[in-house]
Design brief:
This protein has helices at residues 34-39, 44-59, and strands at 10-15, 21-27. It is of the alpha+beta class.
Length: 68
């Protein structure tokens, strides 16, 4: 949030099987706003998908969450 000069943001996260806290959603406004998405330099959902793809590559595959 600091790197993007966000003063207020909501973070949703889960704990992975190996105990890491993984952020899966960051909300910078109250709801999805298509007007903001049109003028933003990157797609919000696309950026999250790209990040998750990088995480998947780092851990060597998909990580199952919710079952222990």
């Amino acid at each position: 949030a600091r790197a993007n000069n966000l003063e207020v943001a909501g973070f949703e996260f889960i704990e992975s099987i190996d105990g890491r806290t993984v952020v899966y959603d960051v909300n910078t406004n109250t709801n999805y706003n298509p007007d903001v998405e049109k003028v933003a330099p990157k797609s919000g959902p696309g950026s999250v998908a790209a990040y998750l793809k990088r995480v998947e590559a780092e851990v060597g595959g998909l990580v199952s969450v919710g079952r222990r």
